[in-house]
Specification:
129 residues, alpha/beta, 4-stranded parallel β-sheet, 4 strands, 44% helix
Amino acid sequence: MGVGYRNSEGYWDPVPFAAAANMDREAKKYRPLVYICSSGEGEMEKIRKYSRFAVEQEAIPLAPDLLLSQYMKEKEQDLILLMRKVLLGKCSEIWVFGSEITGGMKQEIGKAKKKRMTVRYFTEDLREA
């Protein structure tokens, strides 16, 4: 049974319907898909922390270091780089974490800037730089 315009006694009552509609809108609130960019390797716990931070900032994090490490082999670097580029292209923002910017990170940041994506920089302790 859904929320209708009539109450349990059959009288016209649009208030519950409006309240339910507003709840749905709030639940569907826009959250940007953000690419988590960090030096990454061997720092999975930090990347989890960065991803959780993005969720708390009402964004949807995409952390290729966490994702691809689950099933890709180190010797498949060319394929990994291709996958990272494709994933970056699906995001609306890139969030860069840490004080060290590696060569791979520079490439990802450059690609994001060419696509006019929002680029945000954060320290390791999650403060925006």
